[in-house]
Design goal:
mainly beta; six-stranded antiparallel sheet; 4 helices
Length: about 500
């Protein structure tokens, strides 16, 4: 099956988002005029999957047991408010890819979506162990200062002489890091600016198709949704997930457009600051059932992504130390270290794990497995994208699934369920190891906001979780499985009076 046909066959479901702007302005106990000024925390991780910023917590184009993995994704612009078409609902957005180890940016572009548009992309492994991105859709190639337009081109629509989809390579050499670090990671989409609905003066074909669209300078609306699929064509396997969406990331900032050479916009540009973003992402417990049964060649991996961790650590020149700044910070500034507390980025964040078998017998993870042991029930999550494979052993783990970058023993049982405490303690609902309390130097927020309910503290870590469960049957020859969202619990403490 050709990749072009696969893109056409990948279906999407548009979920209705009732009155996105009204939702923001009707949070209980908060005056609408305050929200209009952005003076309170209106940014939410929208359970309906629609907003002005998206996170895709996992892409993977490494070879898996010698089989190619292609990643297809779609971003769509549901440009309607309360059932009424929006006449200026085109969206310019930053599409940024980050590698799995320390969230270093390996590729970014500015894309444009017309009204009711679907922007599709293909990530694949190309020559020299590099990830490549192909798309037939619009990329912003310039924003001339003297002209109120974005210049557009289908610059990623690069094909070979035989018609194979090629695209453009990621650019790790500019950091520099090894090429193969680009093959695994996550990516983000941040709405930059509202534009006219349609492109003008469209001409050309293929990668040379050009045009322009009129700018407005206004915030991008809450119209973005997305999903991704990992496809192994040779085995007939596809597993997908929906992107996580922030609504009200920016309502009163105006344009967030920055050229490709800028590291902005990023999640520090949220009008309610990165602290509110992380409060929305914060999770205390992660849990899920698993199967690693050998008779059906079962493999299970928990994917735990920390999409904001890198803001809490310094950069390459300083060796990635934990931020210890004691000064005040606000919008577009990096926060201090908490809720992360490792001395350096790859030292890892200590968390607790308990695993139960099918007979409800618990197993506490012992010392001596892939992650450095800290105690009888603790492991360290060392990366920005942690792919934790479960293995039916009570001792040291030898990782055999090439998907995994960490290994976790089950104690012997090949099926059951697990619970990870991202607070790193088994002491119940105390303050524990990983937590964040406001105010702590944030010059804008005095408390975290959840639909008009205010909290001073969250316990845990800002994370997104997926699980990847696969099986195969040698007698039939089939491989099958799925990516699912992980179950989680939050621990929000210290309710406060409305600020």
């Amino acid at each position: 099956m050709s990749r072009k046909l696969l893109i056409l066959l990948v279906a999407f479901v548009i979920g209705a988002f009732w009155a996105p702007m009204t939702m923001a302005a009707s949070l209980g106990g908060v005056a609408a005029d305050e929200l209009g000024l952005g003076s309170t925390a209106g940014t939410i991780l929208n359970p309906e999957g629609k907003g002005d910023a998206l996170i895709f917590p996992y892409y993977d184009v490494r070879l898996l047991n010698g089989k190619t993995q292609d990643n297809y994704f779609a971003i769509f612009n549901d440009s309607m408010t309360n059932g009424i078409d929006d006449p200026t609902a085109g969206i310019a957005a930053k599409l940024r890819f980050r590698e799995w180890d320390k969230s270093l940016e390996v590729y970014d572009i500015n894309i444009w979506l017309s009204c009711y548009d679907v922007w599709v992309g293909l990530i694949q492994q190309g020559p020299n162990s590099l990830a490549y991105l192909w798309s037939p859709d619009w990329v912003i190639i310039d924003a001339p200062a003297a002209s109120p337009v974005f210049l557009l081109q289908t610059a990623l629509n690069v094909t070979s002489a035989t018609g194979a989809l090629v695209g453009r390579p990621f650019r790790p050499q500019l950091i520099p890091i090894p090429n193969d670090r680009t093959l695994l990671g996550y990516f983000e989409v941040i709405g930059e600016e509202r534009t006219a609905c349609k492109a003008s003066n469209v001409s050309g074909t293929g990668a040379n198709r050009t045009g322009y669209v009129n700018r407005t300078g206004a915030d991008a609306p809450n119209y973005l949704e997305g999903y991704a699929y990992i496809v192994r064509v040779d085995e007939g396997v596809a597993a997908g997930y929906n992107a996580s969406a922030f609504a009200n990331f920016a309502r009163n900032i105006g344009t967030l457009y920055f050229p490709p050479e800028s590291d902005q916009p990023n999640f520090t540009n949220c009008e309610d600051t990165i602290d509110q973003v992380e409060f929305q992402l914060a999770k205390r417990f992660l849990n899920q059932g698993y199967s690693v049964e050998s008779n059906i060649n079962a493999k299970f991996s928990a994917i735990i992504t920390f999409p904001t961790k890198h803001f809490h650590f310094g950069g390459i020149l300083t060796g990635f130390p934990l931020n210890s700044n004691a000064v005040n910070y606000g919008v577009a500034e990096a926060p201090r270290g908490e809720p992360f507390n490792a001395a350096r980025a790859n030292d890892g964040e200590e968390v607790s794990v308990t695993i139960w078998d099918r007979n409800e017998v618990p197993f506490s993870v012992p010392p001596g497995f892939e992650s450095p042991a800290q105690g009888s029930d603790k492991i360290k999550l060392k990366y920005e994208v942690n792919i934790v494979g479960l293995y039916p052993t009570a001792g040291a783990v030898t990782i055999t699934n090439p998907r995994d970058n960490l290994g976790l023993p089950t104690g012997g049982p090949d099926s059951g369920w697990f619970k990870i405490d991202l607070n790193g303690t088994t002491a119940g609902y105390g303050t524990g190891t990983h937590f964040k309390t406001l105010p702590d130097g944030n010059t804008k927020l005095q408390a975290f906001n959840w639909f008009g309910n205010f909290f001073a503290t969250y316990v845990g870590l800002p994370a997104l979780g997926l699980v990847y469960q696969e099986f195969s049957n040698n007698k039939v020859g089939g491989v099958y499985g799925e990516i699912l969202p992980i179950f989680y619990e939050v621990d929000w403490q210290n309710p406060v009076v409305e600020p």
